[in-house]
Records
---
Amino acid sequence: MITESYEAVDLVRQALSMMLVASAPILLAGLFVGLTVSILQAMTQIQEQTLSFVPKIVAMVTVTIILAPWLAQMLMDFSARLFSGNV
């Protein structure tokens, strides 16, 4: 009984760490583009609030498209380990 709960906690920990690894590059791309746009807005004194959204969305979608094969492989490996019982 106790070992089953430890296995469940370990499974949740693995899923959360995989989610963190999978989302980190996409979020970092949005962070860096947003920071760059904010610095450019401060330098040029353009105070348009919606100006930072389009470059961030484009960067995040581009990173997602580039990393899609790696993300899919990581999810498939985790799913295969989960359903085979080798977690």
Note: Residues 8 and 78 are 15 Å apart (CA to CA).
---
Amino acid sequence: MNKTAMYYGALIVFVILALIISSDLNKVPDLHPKFASFVTSAIMDSEGPNTFGQNLQVLHGITSRGQLLNVMRGFQEALGVKCDFCHNKQDFASDDKPQKRMARVMITMVRNIDSNYLNAPGLEKVTCFTCHRGRSIPKLVAVR
């Protein structure tokens, strides 16, 4: 096989791979993630005291470990991160990571948007996934 044929063969493989990768990047993400509705109901509809967990300042009505873990799974799914993105693994209640403090601000923002602007019957509620779509930093995605 001569060098020209090898060059064009490699070029064709490269172009095909580039097309495959770019088609995955342009896919519209799933707009109904598994835990998003649970997270929304847990942080928006509950106003009672927390009877489980430590240092839950803006999440209200958490009454079990399972409920707290489901809320955290929703955050993981919405932001595409693991627990240690926001939490210190040695002390989950610690506020030493700025991402955890920002999460509280964002939860408060979502609560404000839903209660002040999307309070009419039939309107979809905002979730973390609405903007983040599986990324730690929100990215605007055109929905077709």
Note: The CA atoms of residues 57 and 104 lie 8 Å apart.
